[in-house]
Amino acid sequence: MPMQPGLWSVNGLATELEIDRRTVARRLRDVPPAGKRGGHPVWRMADALPALTRGDRPKVDDAPPPPPGFGWLAGLPPQDAMAGMLLMLLVYRLPPAVASVTVAAGAPCRVAFAAAEVFKAVAAQLVGEVAREVRLPPWSTEDDPPVIAPDLFMEVNWPALAEGAGEPLDPDAWAAWMAERFAA
């Protein structure tokens, strides 16, 4: 309810718009009041509403830079950048999951090692296919976008997996087996 005809206090705006009073006060701090009542500032609804309805979302220009390895996100619309980041974070986190599940299923560590390594490329390819289907840049605008940052793949705890499988830790032998298996 306005405190003066057409003028609203922080409490009045908070009540009318169902926004926390502290949020209203914070969002109005840069909006000049239209007057005072009882020593407190009051605003016209038309002056207050733009500041109160924009939320606390950062402007695109104020967005922080992408994290290391995600420079390709710069310049994308925020929703596209978030979708791209989420897809790639999923890809980067899959190798330990694939290795763990493979060993848990009873496969030897060399198979888990190969599966984790090969799945990096497979997951990246699948993400690219899905991203193109939903027209998500940069996959939708480039044939082979430079989005993979190999150093961002999560490490597999091979010592723990080998111990759990009752096998010696031998990544070099596993890599040699994988190379023979996938040579063609």
Task: Give a short synopsis of this structure.
By secondary structure, this protein is mostly helical.
Features:
single chain, 184 residues, mainly alpha, 2 domains, 7 helices, 3 strands, 52% helix, elongated
Description of the structure:
With 184 residues, the chain is mainly α. The chain has two domains: 7-56; 71-182, no CATH class. It is 52% helix and 5% strand. It is built from seven helices and three strands, in the order E-H-H-E-E-H-H-H-H-H. Strands 1-3-2 form a three-stranded antiparallel beta sheet. A hairpin with a 2-residue loop joins strand 2 and strand 3 (40-44). Helix 1 crosses helix 2, helix 4 packs antiparallel against helix 5 and helix 5 packs across helix 7 (171-182). It is elongated, with a radius of gyration of 27 Å.
